[in-house]
Amino acid sequence: MTKFSDCCLKHKNEIAKLYGMAIRRDVHNKPVRQLLEFLNLTGVRHRKLKTIKEEEKKIYLYSVQKESVDFLDKISARHSDLDTQDDWHDRRGNRKRNRLFTKKSPMRFPKTYRANIRGGLATALELIEKRFLD
Questions:
Q1: What is the percent of the chain with per-residue pLDDT over 70, rounded to a whole number?
Q2: Of 65, 71, 85, 118, which sits most exposed with the smallest number of CB within 10 A?
Q3: pLDDT per residue over 48-80, tens digit each?
Q4: Exposed, middle or buried: residue 71 (CB in 10 Å: 0-12, 13-18, 19+)?
Q5: Which residue has the higher pLDDT, 93 or 38?
Q6: Measured between alpha carbons, how far is residue 83 from residues 71, 78, 80 in Å?
């Protein structure tokens, strides 16, 4: 677990940005606690099986639920399937092409909606319309 805790400390800024979680200060002393936080983040559920005492030291044994691992395996298989990736990119490309509002047919706010708005919000809406029309 030393390599794991070293890696966590090395990349703590990236982890904080990507996952919104801080690395524990005591990650070298309690690396399993940090690992369990990552597992919970990915949806892998665990449970503590039992505690063993050896030479004045406690050892905690954990189990990971098989359903959680199977679920992640299915996701991983789906993401690595090239046909699925191609289908996803095709669907995404179609969504961009078939947008409801484009520069050619911009979104316009109804006049009744505009009539009830006064002040800065009304001018902001007019600026938005002008920008997308030009």
A1: 69
A2: 118
A3: 889 999 888 888 898 888 888 888 888 888 878
A4: middle
A5: 38
A6: 20, 9, 9
127-to-101, 102, 120, 131 alpha-carbon distances in Å: 16, 16, 11, 6
Per-residue pLDDT reduced to its tens digit, 41-55: 888 888 888 999 988
Secondary structure string (H, E, C) spanning the chain: CHHHHHHHHHCHHHHHHHHCCCCCCCCCCCHHHHHHHHHHHHCCCEEEEEEEEECCEEEEEEEECHHHHHHHHHHHHHHHCHHHHHHHHHHHHHHHHCCCCCCCCCCCCCHHHHHCCCCHHHHHHHHHHHHHHC
Single-letter code of the amino acid located at 107? M
pTM: 0.52
For residue 34, how many other CB atoms are within 10 A of its CB?
21
Place of tokens 């029309």: 133
Residue 104 has pLDDT above 80, yes or no: no
